[in-house]
Design brief:
heterodimer, A: Rossmann fold, six-stranded mixed beta sheet, 7 helices, B: about 300 residues, alpha+beta, Alpha-Beta Plaits, 2 domains, four-stranded antiparallel beta sheet, 4 strands
Chain lengths: ~220, ~300
């Protein structure tokens, strides 16, 4: 599903985030990206979603070279990817349900169908009773769950999560990992960057370790 | 409901809500746009009112030939024969002194004429020329002035022609000003939308991350721009109505002094609609430019 071929990414100013990465991820796989902070985990995820473009090499998703996508094609790639951010990136001037509806509105869903799906997604992350709340009224763990609901509401085949449990207490982190396990069971491909050893031990799955922008080890 | 249509409706409602939530800044922008529109449209109104006033005046060159009071019947006959045979003259009309006095009475100046002991007006000929060149007019005026029994010769239409020429300049100025202020309007609208974009930058970035097209992101801003232009146009129409109200009195007073029934004509409904449409369009365009530039810059 995802293929990195000799991918390097250098940022303007000379910092090399990734160096000569070759990596394949199959459909339905659960992959943990690990490594110290600054090892290139976030950059790797950004390359998959075409948020960044590789300096050299090719990143293909479903056979599409995403580094070469035109401006107009990028949004359609992203609609098939659920993105989960460490800082949630919620819109604080909209209610919980409106945040969840956003991807469906963008994809042009029928409003009634969109509401049905958004409620189902909120139910899945346990926030259905908070649908009218504003995100500011949610705890950190709840905000992260809202971010997850928004990422999966359009039922993407691929979910990318950047440090999803980074700022959370153990209890919350376990909740969220259980959700990921459920997504994995229904066939969603998951790529999760983390340095949370508990997560990896609890879930199993493939581990890809990065070290200073290169592939260090795979287990 | 269709999702695309729903987003249009939602964008419109969102733009309206945002405008109402910041009534002061939205009001000031509307005022700035309104003033920018008022200048060319006000000038258009002034020119079209003057044009209407001048419309009753002959623009074809006309010459008035006044006979001397002491002209003998023989001289009068010689003048008539000369005028009837002259190759440059298209039409001629004799206006007796009595007829001239009656016309003054009919124009509402009977108060003045009633005070006169005798009719001070001379007999006259009103002549229309075949050629309108100023030189031809001048040659004929000199030729006729030299005839015995002629008191004076006036080329009446010259000032009317000049007025038409001035109105022509006025119309051109209106066009040029409209163009200039159209540009100003785009700039004002674009700047106001830029402020909106900065406030909503995060929303734009998040929307992009989850697959929003540029078109989707642009939509609420374009509605905001269009609404902003429309509110500016309404402000301009309000300002013009107030100006008209303030000027109506003095203008009628002046017109009455000249015995004219002239009244200010307000902006016609189609012209008002055109102002509304143009302002909406220009402000929309300003919004489009601002958002498109911002989207390029955000990468």
């Amino acid at each position: 599903m995802i293929q990195f071929s000799q991918v390097s990414k250098r940022y303007p100013g000379g910092h090399t985030a990734l160096e000569n990465i070759t990596l394949g991820i199959e459909k339905g796989e659960l992959v943990f990206l690990t490594g110290h902070s600054g090892a290139g985990k976030s950059t790797l995820l950004k390359l998959i979603a075409a948020i960044e473009r590789p300096t050299s090499g090719a990143v293909t998703v479903n056979g599409q070279n995403v580094g070469r996508l035109s401006r107009h094609a990028v949004p359609f790639l992203r609609r098939n990817i659920g993105l989960i951010f460490q800082d949630h990136k919620l819109l604080f001037d909209r209610s919980v349900i409106e945040n969840t509806l956003l991807p469906l509105s963008i994809a042009g869903f029928d409003r009634r169908e969109a509401f049905k799906r958004a409620r189902a997604a909120l139910d899945k992350v346990g926030l259905l009773n908070r649908e009218k709340s504003m995100p500011i009224a949610l705890s950190g763990g709840e905000q992260q769950r809202l971010c997850i609901a928004r990422a999966v509401v359009s039922r993407p085949a691929l979910v990318l999560a950047d440090e999803p449990t980074g700022n959370l207490d153990t209890g919350y982190a376990i909740d969220i990992l259980n959700m990921f396990r459920d997504f994995h069971r229904v066939g969603t491909t998951l790529v999760i960057s983390t340095h949370d050893e508990r997560a990896i031990q609890a879930m199993g799955g493939r581990v890809v370790q990065l070290d200073h922008g290169t592939l260090a080890a795979e287990a | 409901m269709n999702g695309w249509l729903a987003h249009h409706l939602a964008s419109f409602a969102d733009a309206l809500r945002r405008m109402l939530r910041t009534p002061f800044s939205a009001g000031f922008t509307a005022l700035a746009i309104g003033v920018a529109i008022t200048l060319p449209v006000g000038m258009y109104l002034a020119v079209s009112n003057l044009g209407q006033l001048a419309g009753g005046l002959p623009t074809q060159p006309e010459i008035s030939l006044f006979l001397a009071g002491k002209a003998s019947p023989a001289e009068r006959e010689a003048i008539q024969r000369k005028l009837e045979a002259h190759p440059d003259i298209e039409q001629r009309r004799f206006v007796s002194s009595e007829a001239a006095l009656e016309r003054l009475n009919a124009q509402g100046l009977s108060d003045i004429t009633a005070g006169l002991e005798r009719n001070p007006l001379p007999d006259a000929w009103v002549l229309t020329l075949k050629q309108s060149a100023p030189q031809a007019l001048d040659t004929l005026r000199k030729e006729l002035s030299a005839l015995p029994g002629v008191e004076s010769v006036h080329a009446d239409s010259i000032w009317a022609e000049r007025l038409q020429a001035i109105l022509g300049i006025g119309r051109m100025l209106v066009l040029l000003l409209s163009g200039l202020f159209g540009l100003a309007l785009i700039a004002i609208a674009s700047n106001a939308i830029r402020a909106q974009i900065l406030v909503r930058r995060e929303e734009i970035e998040v929307s992009r991350l989850i697959g929003a097209t540029d078109r989707y992101i642009r939509r609420p801003f374009l509605y905001y721009g269009a609404l902003q232009g429309a509110s500016g146009a309404l402000a301009a129409l309000g300002i013009l109505a107030l100006l008209g109200l303030a000027l109506q009195g003095p203008v009628s007073q002046l017109a009455t002094l000249y015995g004219s029934p002239f009244r200010l004509t307000p902006l016609s409904l189609p012209a008002g609609a055109a102002v509304l449409g143009a302002a909406t369009l220009f402000s929309w365009l300003g919004a489009w430019i601002a958002v498109t530039r911002a989207l390029r810059k955000f990468g």
